[in-house]
Amino acid sequence: MTRHFLFLQGVASPFFGRLADHLRARGERTTKINFCAGDRAYWGMRPAVSYRGTVDGLDDYLKQIFAENDFTDLVLFGSHRPVHRPAIALAEAANVRVHVFEEGYVRPNWVTLERGGVNADSLLPRDPDWYLYVDPQLPRYADGQTAHSDIRIRAAHDLAYHASNGLNPLLYPGYRTHRPHVAAVEYAGWLRRFSALAWRRKNDRRRIHAVNTGTDPFFILPLQLNGDTQITLNSRYGGMPRLIDTVLRCFAVHAPAQSKLVIKNHPLDTGLVDYPALLTGLERELGLAGRVIYLETGLLPDLLEHAAGVVTVNSTAGMIALAHGRPMITLGAAIYDLPGLTFQGQLRDFWENAEQPVRRLFRAFRNTVIHTTQVNGDFYTRRGIAMAVTNSDRLLAPQSPLQELMALYPPNTHTADTRESAR
Hints:
Elements: E1 4-7, H1 15-25, E2 29-34, H2 37-43, E3 48-50, H3 58-68, E4 73-77, H4 85-93, E5 97-103, E6 110-115, H5 128-134, H6 151-164, H7 168-171, H8 183-195, H9 197-213, E7 218-222, H10 229-232, H11 240-254, E8 260-264, H12 275-286, E9 292-295, H13 301-304, E10 309-312, H14 317-323, E11 328-330, H15 347-353, H16 359-373, E12 374-376, H17 382-390, H18 401-408
Parallel strand pairs: 1-2, 1-4, 2-3, 4-5, 7-8, 7-10, 8-9, 10-11
Antiparallel strand pairs: 5-6, 6-12
Helix pairs in contact: 1-17, 2-6, 3-4, 5-16, 11-12, 11-15
């Protein structure tokens, strides 16, 4: 039976349009709702309708368009955008499959495709023994084919998308971005931040070398984007300043006296939060002078070889830390927050009692996550998009790979080797 795919917002790239072309070539139908001029520019002349109102009126509009069409599938990027939440609720009530794309849980070379939700909404089991049990039944996945991601191409697409949105007051007067700031404010922040990175890199390289070769143990706090929904919706912090305040106060009281805390900024941070000024004030207040190292640049793997542990909320950097065998605690909802992978106690106890993740469990977890939720490819480059489109044929299956695997091996009904023997 022919399927009818309704596309909502995607990433700022040609990916959704190329995916729709691929599905139509397979004999399926596609429709898109454009919410802003950027959506329309990247969708082109493919079948689409436009919603020009505000979020307040979206629910009634979606009910009407669902009633008038025989949609079988809903496709979107990021399940927590305001324009997506009511559509997901309607789709679930109508038994319409919901396919959610997101940046890769495993990076590079992978993007995420799950049914129902991603991240905190993921259906991935929280039972570590399940991963140890099902992994031997699966193919072996390594790093996938290289997608050749290029930050410059990603930036060019973002600029083109938001330049098109300059027409929103005329074409889509009710649209409001899901991001915390309009594009012009973010671009101004990036310009100011990136213009200062050249002179920061030399100092940061020196600081990384010093902590790696020093005798004092150090922990890492990799920052996430301040407006990331992983922080604003899937944690209790609401933003990076509150997280930093919480972690530093705990570190000052409970961490070993000689230990240090390395705080590394996110590579795509807009620079709109003055982290150095925030840290200077907290160091003075908490008596942490000389124990907090802030890095604006640098690569996380360069620090992980010698780190005593990693503190994160739910960043994909956590997967990188686990791959390096680093002890870790999560302070929010993360798919990898499992007994045997992350510290299950309180942050105040982590500093003295952190344990390395169980290597075999992580290998089983990573392999299963790739099999069930990851698509080899990229959202932004020509090669990466072609790979991701071809590898997204799982959209056409009656069930997702995760649903199929869970039907064969229901969680909490199989017992694998104990985690101690899996080390």
